[in-house]
Amino acid sequence: MFLFTFVEFNFYMDLIEDQYFIQGIPVLDIIKEYGTPIYVYDTQIIERQINRLKSAFHVDKLGIHFACKALNNINILKFIKSCDVGLDTVSIQEIWLGLKAGFTPDQIIYTPNCVGVDEIEMALKLGVQINVDHIETLEYIGHHYPDSKICIRINPHVMAGGNEKISVGHIDSKFGISIYQLPLVIRLVQTLKLNINGLHMHTGSDILDAGVFTLASQILFDAALKFPDLEFIDFGSGLKVPYQTDDVSTDIEEVGELLSNSFNEFCNQYGRKLKLYFEPGKYLVSESGMFFVKTNVIKQTPSTVFAGVDSGLNHLIRPMFYGSYHQILNISNPKGRPRIYNVVGYICETDTFASNRAISEIHPNDILGFKNAGAYCFSMASNYNSRFRPAEVMIHEGKHYMIRERESIEDLLKNQIEVL
Known about the structure:
Strand content: 25-35%
CATH architecture of the largest domain: Alpha-Beta Barrel
């Protein structure tokens, strides 16, 4: 069963005559003030996605927790908190950021993978909801922190996701406790008197087949019947957003109806109402972000025209790492004659953003904009080639705010110690 919808790619920028605008602000004015390369986020889009997700589900208790590994600027976190959304974290550092942004420990879920007991202990002492995917960690908590509330991350052995790098619920995944190990988990819970208050699963990202959610949820419901003291069931996420014109995306309304019905039926079988949790990352922030760069050179070889820009895989690695697609617009010449380009970066590697892409004719110093730059873009940036990480700007209620300064040479040298 495939539940997806064809969408007209939803530009969060308005094209009026020959200019792009964000919340009424000319994009080129933003570039003039802050320079390039730069990430820009529109809070209206984030709020739209949150409201759409909330409206899609019809359950007594819905909890949304933003997967902050997607975008971790503290201003974005504060805005998301103001929308009555909690936080999904995967590291102690993300917990610290969440607390700094004003989230209370009970609003934070911590789902680590392959971390040491020292980090587990720090999280437990902070009082966040811990989500465990390792049997030895369950034993450790039972022996040393017997009163802690624990969620268990189940691996349902369901292959799902846009590609193998973002499919995390299959049998050979490092994530989750195998559903086949459930008898061992139950023995540990009973022997150590563990307080299991939640069950969790996450099968992958960019899921279009709602049958994946149906299959995995049934596996999770069957497992949940073996734990009498649950407070919530967490479906993770994996919702696909559109990346280009006429792209398909997860039909969240149909998925919400499907899962709401099965969840409500399960709660009746379980004997009481539980909370249903979701942990979207990309779904909430991907479309809110644009990445703007300046064209340095137009370079032609016998067969290819390259548009070389003032950025590279150090700022936006997703196309090279995942093969991900980002629509590219010529902000300076939006109505120009389309030509075919390879858009490439300035890093001493083959850092190609796009190959054989039709874009309005590009000239040196033109500003290009990359769509879907709100998720897993700045958060995966680096200083490779000793390049500075870019600035970040937030557009909120018709005004623009610098929310992260561009790095400088002092930032690169800050933690280095000269000994010669």
